[in-house]
Design goal:
CATH architecture: Orthogonal Bundle
Number of helices: 7
Largest sheet: none
CATH topology: Cytochrome Bc1 Complex, Chain D, domain 2
Order of helices and strands: HHHHHHH
Number of strands: 0
Strand content: under 5%
Distance between the termini: 64 Å
């Protein structure tokens, strides 16, 4: 009987000590530069143009508003070679039918370069 009590006590002590191993939580740290699109020059240029325009009247980054969420646009056109030119043309000329029947207002005052910068910015928002 004494041996059984002694064995149970020893097992309790060993269990409480955790076997002597030091457990460390390992956090997978991502390098900020790898996932930080805000340091991308296309992002900065696009943000500057968008901030001076009426784009946020109809668009939000993560939510559908009057127009589609920009992240949805980015995900739809990600990897397409013609996406920048196509989206720039849509920004300048406007259009309807791709994301529903609500037409996108034309932005004829945007230069081709400005429209392409906005398109590049939007495409950087893909997940």
């Amino acid at each position: 009987m004494k041996k059984t009590v002694y064995m149970i006590a020893m097992l309790g002590v060993l269990a409480a000590c955790g076997g002597g191993e030091k457990k460390e939580e390992t956090k997978k740290e991502e390098t900020p530069a790898a996932n930080d699109i805000t340091s991308n020059p296309d992002y900065q240029k696009g943000v500057d143009i968008v901030a001076k325009s009426d784009c946020f009247t109809c668009h939000k980054i993560d939510e559908k508003n009057i127009g589609p969420a920009w992240r949805d646009v980015a995900n739809k056109y990600a990897g397409q070679d013609t996406a920048v030119k196509y989206l720039a043309a849509k920004i300048i000329a406007g259009g309807a039918g791709v994301w529903g029947q609500v037409p996108m207002a034309a932005h004829p005052t945007f230069t081709q370069e400005e429209a392409e910068s906005v398109a590049k910015y939007v495409l950087l928002l893909k997940k």
